[in-house]
Design brief:
The complex is a heterodimer. Chain A is 61% helix and 9% strand. Chain A is an alpha/beta fold. The N and C termini of chain A lie far apart (104 Å). The chains are: A alpha/beta, B alpha+beta.
Chain lengths: 299, 147
């Protein structure tokens, strides 16, 4: 690319588009303020939306002037990247899919093309075509930048939610004097099972528990790693003087464990949480007796 | 992740613990969609979980190709786990229960083999490992393996 004489007349379609975007900035920004992408994000005031549109147009003009209309990494985008990220994130939080956001960015193009065509009514058709093509490419690049930021925002959201899950997913419940239970739910990966083990051991000490029940009703898949985590937790609880019972073993899980070849015979297991509780109560000498209905005969 | 319209065929990257969750969910959905019963679903998902973790931990990450298959009227699901890791030098040893090169129980590979109907492993030291497993829908007579 030979150096451009910026003071002289524009010599490439990209330069021309850059000049056009600068010259018509206000008009375009006004039109964009009514487009879905800006209207739905900047709900407080229209001026804010116009201001955001101006910033984006500045960036687009800079990218075009640098003749890098196809380059999503172009420096011009850096200025608005953060703003675009906020816009995309706000749309994503409102429940828009990537496809919808993409369509909304696409909808910014027609008003600009319209103004561009009106700008050069007498220009030769070929020249006009070059300019609109350049503009289309430039807007495509803008869409790419927006989607990139939207996706990375999504990744961050997922990571945050993952951390939240780690915190909330392990309540230890006192079922009876000396009996605690942990209902395990979801994926039991290494990080989560570590949290489970720690909270369980803590509560064994706190509650002076002799029995700890690990209920895996809510664990969809028990593979060898999950089984290993369970066995380690059981062994650790045993060291603390508590007996561990694994409950909530569904028929499909039981068959799978057998095929997998994992030996859980060292672990006390029960089909349901109720069975496990009944076992623990019996072991610690607590009997639960149904009250006899009044007036019933003793058989 | 690429998915086709049938919701069964897919190629899923395996590069993190999070991807393992995706693998399990996709295999469960695909198996359910094909009409696998709960037990068969669980077995296949568990096998997929073991093999995907091997791909991640031992193969340094890779790809799962999931595809429906049919042979002589029977329908099934084929899962192909590929990695470009160090490969396995001694396959017999790796398949033996209780042998582990890491800290696991050493039941993954052998266990996965028992959870599916067909199991093939191709590994060359230095170039990577490919494990292909297939499970067939119960009910219809299981087809003979083609030689």
């Amino acid at each position: 690319m030979p150096e451009q004489d910026t003071a002289g007349r524009p010599s490439t379609p990209a330069q021309e588009v850059a000049d056009f975007l600068r010259g018509r900035q206000e008009q375009i920004a006004q039109r964009w303020a009514d487009a879905a992408l800006f209207r739905t994000v900047f709900t407080h005031s229209r001026d804010e939306a116009v201001e955001a549109g101006r910033a984006v147009l500045d960036a687009l003009a800079a990218v075009a002037a640098a003749d890098r209309v196809e380059d999503a990494e172009a420096g011009g985008f850096d200025v608005v990247r953060e703003q675009l990220a906020r816009t995309a994130a706000s749309r994503a939080r409102a429940g828009s899919t990537v496809t919808q956001i993409s369509a909304e960015v696409d909808a910014l193009r027609p008003p600009v093309t319209e103004l561009l065509l009106a700008e050069f009514p007498a220009a030769p058709a070929e020249h006009l075509r070059d300019c609109t093509t350049t503009l289309t490419v430039l807007m495509g690049t803008l869409r790419l930048v927006v989607l990139e930021t939207a996706l990375s925002e999504g990744e961050e959201l997922i990571n945050r939610q993952r951390l939240q899950l780690l915190e909330v997913a392990t309540p230890v419940i006192k079922l009876w004097e000396g009996i605690v239970a942990v209902p395990l739910i979801g994926t039991l990966d290494s990080a989560r099972s570590q949290v489970v083990m720690e909270t369980l051991l803590d509560s064994i000490v706190e509650q002076h528990a002799r029995f700890a029940i690990l209920d895996i009703t809510g664990v969809p898949t028990v593979d060898s790693l999950v089984a290993q985590h369970l066995m380690k937790t059981v062994a650790a609880a045993r060291l603390m003087g508590a007996e561990c019972i694994v409950s909530g073993i569904r028929p499909a899980i039981a068959q799978t464990i057998v095929h997998l070849g994992i030996d859980l015979s060292s672990v006390l297991t029960r089909a349901s949480l109720a069975d496990a509780l009944a076992y623990a109560l019996r072991e610690q000498g607590t009997d639960i007796v149904s009250r006899e209905p009044a007036g019933s005969e003793v058989r | 992740m690429k998915r086709t319209a049938d919701g069964i065929s897919a190629s899923l990257p395996i590069h993190s613990d999070l991807d393992l969750v995706w693998v399990r969910q996709h295999v469960r959905q695909a198996a359910a969609q094909l009409g696998f019963g709960l037990v068969e679903q669980t077995k296949l998902v568990t096998a997929a979980s073991e093999l995907a973790r091997n791909t991640l931990v031992h193969g340094g990450g890779g790809l799962l190709e999931c595809a429906p298959v049919s042979r002589g009227g029977a329908r099934g699901l084929r899962l192909t786990f590929g990695d470009e890791g160090p490969g396995i030098t001694d396959l017999d040893q790796a398949l033996r229960d209780g042998y582990t090169s890491g800290e696991g129980l050493g039941m993954g590979l052998g266990g996965a083999r028992r959870l599916v109907h067909e199991f093939a492993i191709d590994s060359r030291p230095g170039t990577g490992t490919t494990v292909t497993v297939t499970s067939w829908m119960p009910g219809a007579p299981r087809p003979r393996e083609e030689r």
